[in-house]
């Protein structure tokens, strides 16, 4: 059966981190979904390139809705922004095929020679102060995913003098979120020998919505290892700077869970006793959490309108879409479905598709 997303363009640039990693795995003859790291790469790539990107979800939904026989269940997952997509076979197959094609296309694209030269200079001679400064100056002047990755790497370990490390940190922060995919992918397996404090500092200071979750995950992963304890105590202090309105609730939830190890509880309890999580004066949630709340609320309303449209109730669907447009004038899903409401597009069939996704 032909994949309805065959040849779909996920619009990934050639300097993307996931393409870089894919190239390495291909060279190692590990580009198979049976390979654990390859599958982890694909899952993370789908999350970064599809799940998190509302515009990409909308493009996929529009593509599926144009089909004579749309895969209904896949469409439901795509349009529900809280639904994961890395377990949906249609998405996996299409995304993997695209990455392979894109990697082949990018072979002919020459990498930025200035970035390559600066990266080599910085990574090979981090102890050479003048060389390191010159390399960072070059990398900081070229806003690209590749230069951001190099700078992010050198602040993950104590390889530079402290003032140079802070300079590199400032450059990475100025480029945010270009280094985000690399940092998140590298943090996930918790395989690092030293806790990359600067990375977590970046997440907090750049207002990354999941920063608190990532820090708590790190504590949970390493609290049973005495060698990490001192670093974890320092890491926990970053939570005092977090603007996440759910910070205290998340800490207490982990603290009160029966599954939380005693060593983790000690660290969390100690933090709560000696620190106060920030109390914000805002009447509502700060950014980016306020935007996320609006996004989730809008999506729930959109799903109601889409259900009406898909059951043939176009007039009712149109009214709900108009209401949502008054609240969110640029909401991509609504703009897409409004076009179909005005046109003659038929709702997708209600027959059960074969594709399965995680509920």
Task: Give a summary of the structure in a few sentences.
The chain is mainly alpha-helical.
List the helices and strands and how they pair.
Blueprint: H1 17-27, H2 36-51, H3 54-65, H4 72-79, H5 89-106, H6 113-124, H7 129-141, H8 145-154, H9 162-175, H10 180-187, H11 197-205, H12 211-222, H13 226-236, H14 247-256, H15 262-274, H16 289-310, H17 314-327, H18 332-342
Helix pairs in contact: 1-2, 1-5, 3-18, 6-7, 6-8, 7-9, 8-9, 12-13, 14-15, 16-17, 16-18, 17-18
Structure, described:
There is one protein chain. With 359 residues, the chain is an all-alpha fold. The protein folds into four domains: 17-106, no CATH class; 113-180 and 189-195; 210-287, no CATH class; 289-342. It is 62% helix and 0% strand. It has 18 helices and no strands. The protein has helices at 17-27, 36-51, 54-65, 72-79, 89-106, 113-124, 129-141, 145-154, 162-175, 180-187, 197-205, 211-222, 226-236, 247-256, 262-274, 289-310, 314-327, 332-342. The longest helix has 22 residues, at 289-310. The two termini are 23 Å apart.
């Amino acid at each position: 059966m032909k994949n309805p997303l065959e040849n779909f363009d996920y619009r990934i640039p050639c300097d993307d981190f996931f393409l870089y990693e894919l190239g390495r795995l291909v060279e190692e003859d590990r580009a198979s979904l049976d390979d654990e790291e390859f599958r982890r790469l694909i899952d993370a790539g789908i999350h970064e390139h599809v799940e998190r990107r509302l515009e990409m979800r909308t493009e996929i939904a529009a593509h599926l809705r144009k089909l004579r026989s749309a895969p209904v269940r896949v469409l439901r997952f795509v349009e529900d922004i809280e639904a994961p997509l890395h377990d949906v076979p249609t998405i996996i197959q299409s995304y993997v095929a695209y990455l392979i094609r894109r990697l082949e296309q990018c072979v002919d694209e020459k990498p930025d020679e200035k970035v390559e030269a600066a990266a080599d200079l910085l990574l090979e001679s981090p102890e050479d102060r003048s060389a390191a400064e010159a390399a960072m100056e070059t990398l900081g002047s070229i806003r690209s995913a590749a230069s951001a990755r190099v700078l992010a790497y050198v602040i993950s370990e104590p390889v530079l003098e402290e003032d140079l490390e802070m300079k590199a940190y400032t450059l990475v922060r100025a480029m945010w979120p270009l280094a985000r995919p690399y940092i998140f992918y590298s943090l996930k397996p918790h395989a690092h020998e030293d806790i990359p404090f600067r990375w977590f500092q970046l997440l907090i200071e750049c207002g990354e919505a999941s920063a608190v979750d990532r820090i708590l995950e790190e504590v949970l992963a390493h609290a049973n290892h005495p060698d990490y304890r001192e670093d974890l105590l320092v890491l926990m202090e970053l939570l005092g700077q977090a603007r996440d309105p759910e910070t205290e609730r998340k800490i207490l939830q982990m603290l009160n869970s029966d599954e939380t190890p005693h060593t983790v509880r000690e660290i969390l309890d100690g933090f709560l006793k000696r620190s106060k999580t920030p109390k914000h004066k805002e009447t509502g949630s700060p950014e980016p959490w306020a935007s996320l709340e609006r996004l989730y609320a809008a999506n729930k309303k959109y799903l109601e309108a889409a259900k009406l449209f898909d059951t043939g109730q176009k007039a009712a669907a149109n009214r709900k879409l108009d209401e949502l447009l008054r609240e969110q004038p640029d909401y991509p899903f609504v703009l897409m479905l409004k076009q179909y409401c005005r046109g003659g597009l038929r709702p997708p069939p209600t027959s059960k598709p074969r594709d399965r996704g995680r509920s």
